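quick q for whoever's on today - can somebody do inverse folding on this one?? i tried earlier but teh output was garbage lol. tokens:
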């Protein structure tokens, strides 16, 4: 199985791992038009996937962040719906 393998919703295993990290409260996101994702304090190695997740509305910024700062990342309702079956299967 490689990183390009897809799940039924069309997301890579890497994208799903990023969503799980957000769900677990381990991720921060920069307040920016192209938000970067940090997991466990380290920048994600695949920021293009992080940008796609944000632009697709699966992860979001909490209200009130200062541009350029890092804030806790949140799952949108759609993101939560994608991650819930993965959490119950584990």
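ok took a stab at it. sequence:
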């Amino acid at each position: 199985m490689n990183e390009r393998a897809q799940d039924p919703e069309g997301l890579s295993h890497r994208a799903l791992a990023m969503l799980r990290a957000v769900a677990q409260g381990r991720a921060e996101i920069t307040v920016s038009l192209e938000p970067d994702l940090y997991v466990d304090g380290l920048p994600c190695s695949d920021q293009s996937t992080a940008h796609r997740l944000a632009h697709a509305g699966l992860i979001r910024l909490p209200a009130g962040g200062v541009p350029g700062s890092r804030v806790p990342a949140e799952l949108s309702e759609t993101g939560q719906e994608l991650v819930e079956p993965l959490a119950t299967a584990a």
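fwiw The two ends are 18 Å apart (CA to CA). also Helices lie at 13-23, 47-55, 77-89. so keep that in mind when u check it
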